[in-house]
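Researcher: Please predict.
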Amino acid sequence: MIAVLGGHGKTGRAVCSAVADRRVEARPLGRADWRGLAEAVAGCEAAYVIAPNLHPDEPGYVAEALAALTAAGVPRVVYHSVASPYAPQLPHHLGKAVAEDLVRRSGLAWTVLQPGAYLQNLDLSGPVSVPYDVHAVFGFADLHDVAEVAALVLLEDGHVGATYELASRTATVAELAAEAGVPAGRTDEPVRTGDERQDEWLAAMFAYYDRHGLLVGTRTMAALLGRDAQPASGSASSAT
């Protein structure tokens, strides 16, 4: 039995599916389970921990999860972090960097996964508009590849103490759009979520992307999945 904390979101559902594909039962857990989390994870052999997107206190969230896992006697944890967690200009990345430190000092057998931006975050069914330079270079991660790696490190030996930065391919938004046969451009409209803190964090993230992109190497993902690494250009097709 594998507990997936944050198991009802898109990443959690993908991880549960990948675990089930290996004929192991996954137990998806959400916010409703949080008060009784130690009881909810009891009997699980490992847990995959995903914090809600742009959580205001990810270290606190992860600390509570680790305490529940420890109390329940769950020996193994895999933490879903982000590529380049220590990026001082990205506040939500820094929260994950602090949370990674908590995971490493938890006393549990741990692994940390650091995926790049999801390919699935881009809707390529029509014109693509993003609030940053469409020619910025990213190491994009296919969600299904990430989930497959998650299942692998949860269920196979040899990954305790490892930190894996994950990308399926290297590309720009402009290149992905061109492959899909749709135009891509930049919008100057600010993103509004209704939450001032989230809006500030997103603005900082897009400003960082505009200047630096978010480059992530592909060889680690390829090695873990037993596939050829995608070349460092936008011309290769997405790994699926």
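Model: The chain has one domain: 2-225.
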